[in-house]
Amino acid sequence: MATVPPKPTAEQSDLSALKGHIPLIGLTGGIGSGKTTVSDLLAKLGAGIVDSDLIAHQVTASNGPAIALIEEQFGPGFITANGALNRDKMRALVFAKPEARKSLEAITHPLIRQETIRQALQLSKDGAPYLVFVAPLLIESGSWLSLIDRLVVVDTPEEIQIKRVMQRSNLAREELQGILAAQASRHERLKHADIVIENQGTLRDLESEVASLHQEILQIQKDQLSSS
Asked: Is CATH 3.40.50.300 correct for 14-47+129-228?
């Protein structure tokens, strides 16, 4: 039986410390593509999931670490009565003013990265067979592609994306198209993809694709162990 390589210590603060010790999988796709459904299915199969959207909500939740900085930058009107980010008001602002988006990201991105690293190191320490980093802007960030072992793209035609999001939220089509425009194009995502999950059919179809993906990643893990 192959010997499991020693896991990085909690003091190591860079995700590159995990490279070669555990498969690092990037999971991305446009809004409404089904990333969360795919990551939920992988989690049920035992994957360690680090979701940047969930972390972003945590740091901007009631009295989260980003709140004081956001209030200082944008004013108290962008904070709700219970101390959380007023998402509707901020969404409208960054949609109208791209420079506001950059100011918000300058506050939230370092906090998101810090929590991403903490969660990844903990999941590795806890024995997850592989890590999945769920990030809608994974390709756009520029830094992920050199770190991950495989990039998985959940692919869905744009019109299906829009229909799904409009069914689950009160966003107008114009707002959704603005969000889509700020993300990498479908063509750009597919160009970088190592593995494509087609999400246009039934949940059963998706479950089958995810099960195959899980086995493929476990093989990467075996290959890493055998070469160590």
From this structure: yes
